[in-house]
## 1
Amino acid sequence: MDNSFSNRVKTLIKGIPYGKIATYGQLATSAGNPRAARQVAWLLHSSSKKDNLPWHRVINSRGYISLPRFKGYELQKQLLLEEGIEFGENDFIDLKKYQWRTLK
DNA sequence: TTACTGACCTTTT
DNA sequence: AAAAAGGCCAGTA
């Protein structure tokens, strides 16, 4: 029942404050598996549908959205803009400014 | 039921 | 230094 990984990742995503973003690796590392970043993204898909998680607050390590334009890229970008996240010319986000640090 | 894919990251060659 | 392969878990077919 206590799913160590998925449950923990979901909790971390739910704990992301407004106007902040987190990377897959960061969540995976905080969840206990630095190499399970893939599943973090995958969990987002199912969890976001069921638990309504802020999947738009989760991006890749490059500070850039991984979603294709026809899948939800515009949607995530729009949501992030709503939160106050600024995008560069190449839709590049400043991780230094917006990346949420789970650990101090 | 088993097998394969999947919004990635890390490490090694 | 860059490039390539590996690794993890869950969901879907």
## 2
Amino acid sequence: MDSDAIKGHLTGPVIRRLSEYLLILDKLIIEEKEVVSSRELANNYGNNASQVRQDMFHLHHTGAQSHGYETRELRAAIADALGLNVYKRLAILGVGNLGRAIAMHVPFEDYGMKLVAAFDIDKNLSGSSISGVPVYHTDNIQKVIKKEEILLTALCVPAEVAQQSANQVISAGVCGILNYSRTRLKVPKHVAVHYEQIICSFMQLSCQVQHKKS
Amino acid sequence: MDSDAIKGHLTGPVIRRLSEYLLILDKLIIEEKEVVSSRELANNYGNNASQVRQDMFHLHHTGAQSHGYETRELRAAIADALGLNVYKRLAILGVGNLGRAIAMHVPFEDYGMKLVAAFDIDKNLSGSSISGVPVYHTDNIQKVIKKEEILLTALCVPAEVAQQSANQVISAGVCGILNYSRTRLKVPKHVAVHYEQIICSFMQLSCQVQHKKS
DNA sequence: TAGATTGTTAATCGATTAACAATC
DNA sequence: TAGATTGTTAATCGATTAACAATC
């Protein structure tokens, strides 16, 4: 397969946009729209048609006629390029409000992931389930991660225990962490960490709003 | 004040990094570290010293001696540049798990914002409070937003009602929206929208992990 | 055919990194 | 002084935008 070679060339910004196009396409598909032009897609996303076409170019997606892209075909091409056809097994650490929100409302199955476990330090939660997934006590992190062959983890624990939790899941084989805890993590080079500092998004918004006014 | 002129020149990527530096500095300050070098800050954030110094340059922050930056001074300079000294009043729409998580765990007060209201369509929640903030029924959005002079809103409602909710808050005067609902919004030009598509962050992580392996 | 829209290259723009003299 | 580290300019790199021939 040369799709691996293609994927290897996608840069961060392109990957991000492709994933956002995917959501837009899914909405269009539900609306039974069969064809979409680069211009329409750009209007939806908020960029310009040139960039959309450039992104398709990176994707090597040539299945387009000269009157737009087939929504379903494009959806499949993007999903393939992002590797969503190879299901990734996922765990959530911390079943507070945030962990719960993610477990319950993020449609992992539609986008190449499968939530298979959740962990919490609260013993009252052990043995319960959320969104059809068992909640384990944090004592069992290593054992369950290995047994369930979990690759990705969302860290929704307090900052104080985040590094320790990260260490545990990494030593059990996790190689991708989405970090919602308000702290920077030290991890080995083979592990990818994405930081989702909610407060930083608020600051960014706040800062931009202010300029518009003045 | 020329601080406005400075702020106007900060670009998106710079603003984002500055806000992240702020969190790192706060950690260092708690640890009673009084001076930090561009190299140390870069190690914490995960970029390089050159970029850190370039960011300080954009900030016009010259208060540095030739053996590092005073953590407290730098903290203040960044907060000033980001406009965090002018408190922004904030509301959360949707008190589900996500809205609750944000209300309870995001330290707005430390970063120039003040949460003053929450809204939910569930009448059982009306009149209750969360994190010391009253929860109103969505029928009162316009009235309360105006009365409380709310500028920013976090949208934590289901996709189906997101556009409608956005319309309401915008017409009441909100000019910045942090959108956690899985949908694109159509808004007038004077309104800033930041998209936080959680599923897209997972896809990005998943995609990158895959390449590291192959 | 005329019109719409793509695929692709080239031009522009902006962001990151490197380099180094100046400073304490 | 020697060493560490900044401030700032220049060089590099990458991402976005523009342009337009090719296609249906």
